[in-house]
UniProtKB/TrEMBL annotation:
Pfam families: PGI. It is an enzyme of class 5 (isomerase). It catalyses: alpha-D-glucose 6-phosphate = beta-D-fructose 6-phosphate. Pathway: Carbohydrate degradation; glycolysis; D-glyceraldehyde 3-phosphate and glycerone phosphate from D-glucose: step 2/4. Its EC number is 5.3.1.9. This is Glucose-6-phosphate isomerase. The chain crosses the membrane at residues 20-42.
């Protein structure tokens, strides 16, 4: 039998869930602008997910499957080819690892790369009175500010002059120190990474994937591209059982199969 306390706890849980659903709806538009909006209207081909927490180090990989398998389609639900860009390439790495790997391309490259930055305000590992996490958050905040504001030629020149650099050297290096800015990002901050907040993040991104599929008029719930590869693999597997040369495929595949078999 449910007690009054049980009922109140259930009510509080539903109120909390309702608040989370409200937050998902509030933030969905921002996610959609950087997702379907940037892909459809600005030609962005990729989308970076950049969590500043090691416990989320596989978050981007999870949604590579969720997003790309769902919305990697070129025909509408009615079976006609689309004339616009659909599902972007989803990728990313956690925290400062990415800063020393691919952020250069996001800041100064020729590709427009929308990015979602995700961070918890509170760490599970408050090392040295939370100093480590504060340094991490400082990087999180600095990157989004830099991507938004960039650095103008005047700002870069003033900085170089203040360093005591000669005028000739300044003129040579100045173009390389300019950042255009205006790079689109979302900043998503949760209080702490918990099963509940992780579930809320996943629900938010799953809802984004579904709504993008509706906007693009594609079926987000089939994976025929995955099925084709599996079907071909079933045909190729028996051909790898002996050293008999194969000629039933295209020239490239025949050559690869026969090379592999020659080294058994």
């Amino acid at each position: 039998m449910l007690t009054l306390i049980d009922c109140l706890q259930e009510l509080i849980s539903w109120i909390t869930i309702s608040k989370i659903l409200l937050l998902i709806r509030m933030h969905l538009l921002s996610l959609l602008c950087l997702g379907s909006g940037m892909a459809t209207f600005f030609g962005s081909e990729t989308h970076a997910l950049l969590p500043y927490d090691q416990y989320l180090h596989r978050f981007a990989a999870y949604f590579q499957q969720g997003d790309m398998e769902s919305n990697g389609k070129y025909v509408t639900r009615q079976g006609t080819p689309v004339n616009y860009s659909t599902g972007p390439i989803v990728w990313g790495e956690p925290g400062t690892n990415g800063q020393h790997a691919f952020y250069q391309l996001i800041h100064q490259g020729t590709k427009l790369i929308p990015a979602d930055f995700i961070a918890p305000a509170v760490s599970h590992n408050p090392i040295e009175n939370n100093l480590h996490h504060k340094i991490l958050l400082a990087n999180f905040l600095a990157q989004t500010e830099a991507l938004a504001k960039g650095k103008s030629p005047a700002e870069a020149e003033a900085e170089l002059k203040a360093s005591g650099m000669s005028p000739d050297h300044i003129q040579r290096i100045l173009p390389h120190k300019v950042f255009q800015g205006n790079r689109p990002t979302n900043s998503i901050v949760v209080k702490k990474v918990t099963p509940f907040t992780l579930g809320a993040l996943i629900a938010m991104y799953e809802h984004k994937i579904f709504v993008q599929g509706v906007i693009w008029n594609i079926n987000s719930y089939d994976q025929w591209g995955v099925e084709l590869g599996k079907a071909l693999a079933k045909a190729i597997e028996p051909e790898l059982q002996d050293k008999t040369p194969i000629s039933s495929h295209d020239g490239s595949t025949n050559g690869l199969i026969n090379f592999i078999k020659s080294h058994y």
